[in-house]
Amino acid sequence: MSTEEQFDRVFKALANPVRRAICDAIRPRPLTTKQLCTEFPTLDRTTVMMHLRVLEEAGLVVPVRKGRERFNHLDAMPIHDIHERWIGPHAAQAVQGLARLKRDLEAVEDKEKQSTD
């Protein structure tokens, strides 16, 4: 699968508010599918499983079977990859701009001090 296809799957998975809520629920700790069903009482088990499947295909959820239970772990690497591609470069530019602004303002302050001395 290409990088672009992987990004498409991640964006599709995160476009749904229920799937984002599932990611939020398993962020602090892995939950079993049964525990997730309890977290979302308005959804039936089949619907929860469908959402988990989409998240798994996007690489956001890693299921680990322990006996009869399936623990769902969040894998934040796909989100990190999106950050690195689209947000990181812009954030770096913003920090560079702020550093330039700080230097320019300090230079103006220094000139003002010199003119008053």
UniProtKB/TrEMBL annotation:
Domain of life: Bacteria
Span of domain HTH arsR-type: 9-100
Listed SUPFAM superfamilies: Winged helix' DNA-binding domain
Protein name: Helix-turn-helix domain-containing protein
High-level lineage: Bacteria, Pseudomonadati, Pseudomonadota, Alphaproteobacteria, Sphingomonadales
